[in-house]
Amino acid sequence: MAFISKLKQGFGSTFSFFADCWAEMKKVKWPARKELISYTIVVVSTVIFVTVYFAILDLGISELLKIAFE
Q: Whole-model pTM above 0.85?
C-alpha cells in the first residue's frame, strides 16, 4: 500500500504542476494580431540579416585562406 500511496503522491504533484502552469498561462497578456505580425517581421528580418552577414564573412575568410595557402 505504501507504493500506491507514493504513486498517488507523485501523480498528484504532477497534476498540481500542470494546474499551476495553466493558472499562470491565464495571467499572460498575449499580443494582438497586429503586434504579433510586427514582431514576426522583426525576427525574420533579423535572422535574414544575420544569415547574410555570416555568409559574406564566411566567403571572405574562405577566399583569404585560398589566397594564403596557394
A: no
